[in-house]
């Protein structure tokens, strides 16, 4: 029985089995399969839920918004873009509709779980502003700590002169982080500190870190945090769905 090739390269046919073997050799097979499983679950859910229909006006507005955001208002530019993507307008509109339905599904699946998850882990979502100095030798880190304790105004100067990270150019100031984003080996020290406190030196990998706690910000369920939690909880839901499925590979 002749096997239809999956694709061809310079007229050399590549079977599905060979393509999967290539992915396995590069370590990309599992992520590839996970994407297929995830998409299968999404497609199935979209077909089985009757309450995910989208108002046509909302779809049209989403199309307009997409074209505006991607500078595709000109009909000719938009048509050229569709050609480069290898899709028709009908397919593009279907993709937009599917994305809107998935967003609706996410809201349905996560619902009250977001508030529950936030309440149960509120301490981890507290934000903190930190400054740091990162050096290679512990003895040198201790010396810097002593200098800072004698004169706290030295922190920024010492960070610029001695820290090995890119944030030395800003006097060691880091981006504002949620406590949950801080490595576990550091998180507890930061969570129990007060503003202005010097922490460390702490060993992180092969370096030694001095931290200064600048300011704490109360946790609030809004903006990007709410969206991040929705994505996290939806991914968990998809993983649970996948774990309960029987999955077999059939390769000839």
Protein model, in words:
This protein has a domain of about 90 residues: Chitinase A, domain 3 (Roll), CATH 3.10.50. About 55% of the residues lie in helices and about 15% in strands. The protein is elongated, with a radius of gyration of 26 Å. Strands 4-3-6-5 form a four-stranded antiparallel β-sheet, with helices on both faces. A two-stranded antiparallel sheet has the order 1-2. The longest helix is centred in the middle third of the chain and has 22 residues. It is α+β, with helices and mostly antiparallel strands. Strand 1 and strand 2 form a beta hairpin. The chain has ten helices and six strands.
Keywords:
single chain, 10 helices, four-stranded antiparallel β-sheet, two-stranded antiparallel ribbon
Task: Classify the beta-strand content into a percent band.
Answer: 5-15%
**Helix-strand category:** alpha+beta
| Low confidence ranges | none
Radius of gyration over C-alpha positions, nearest whole angstrom:
26 Å
CATH C-level label of the domain at 132-217:
Alpha Beta
- Compressed to H and E, one letter per element, the order equals EEHHHHHHEHHEHEEH
Summed up, the helix count is 10
Q: Characterize the biggest β-sheet.
A: 4 strands, antiparallel
């Amino acid at each position: 029985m002749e096997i239809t090739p999956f694709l061809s390269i310079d007229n050399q046919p590549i079977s599905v089995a060979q393509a999967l073997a290539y992915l396995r050799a590069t370590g990309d097979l599992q992520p590839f399969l996970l994407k297929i499983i995830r998409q299968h679950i999404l497609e199935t859910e979209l077909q089985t839920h009757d309450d995910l229909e989208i108002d046509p006006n909302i779809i049209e507005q989403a199309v307009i918004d997409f074209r505006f955001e991607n500078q595709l208002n000109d009909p000719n530019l938009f048509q050229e873009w569709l050609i480069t993507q290898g899709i028709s307008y009908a397919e593009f509109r279907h993709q937009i509709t599917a994305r809107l339905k998935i967003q609706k599904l996410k809201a349905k699946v996560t619902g009250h779980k977001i508030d529950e998850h936030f309440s149960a882990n509120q301490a981890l979502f507290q934000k903190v502003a930190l400054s740091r100095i990162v050096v290679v030798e512990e003895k040198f880190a201790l010396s810097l700590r002593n200098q800072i304790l004698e004169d706290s105004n030295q922190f920024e100067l010492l960070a610029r002169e001695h820290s090995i990270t890119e944030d030395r150019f800003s006097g060691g100031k880091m981006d504002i982080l949620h406590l949950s984003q801080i490595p576990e080996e550091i998180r507890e020290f930061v969570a129990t500190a007060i503003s202005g406190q010097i922490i460390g030196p702490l060993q992180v990998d092969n370096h030694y870190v001095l931290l200064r706690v600048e300011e704490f910000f109360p946790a609030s369920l809004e903006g990007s945090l709410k969206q991040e939690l929705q994505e996290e909880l939806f991914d968990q839901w998809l993983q649970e769905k996948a774990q309960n499925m029987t999955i077999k590979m059939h390769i000839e």
